[in-house]
Amino acid sequence: MFRGFLEPAYLWRHIVIWLCIVFAILPVLWIISASFDPSNTIIGQKLIPSNPSLENYRRLFNDPTHPFKRWMLNTLKVSLVTSALVVAITSLAAYSFSRFRFRGRKTGLFSILLIQMFPQMLAMVAIYLLLLWIGERFARFGLNTHGGLILVYLGGAMGVNVWLMKGYFDTIPTSLEEAATIDGATRFQCFYKVILPLSRPILVVIFFLQFIGTYSEYVLAKVLLSSNNVLTLAVGLQTFIGDQYAKRWGVFSAAAIIGSAPILILFALLQNQLVSGLTRGAVKE
Question: What percentage of the chain exceeds 90 in pLDDT?
Answer without folding.
Answer: 33
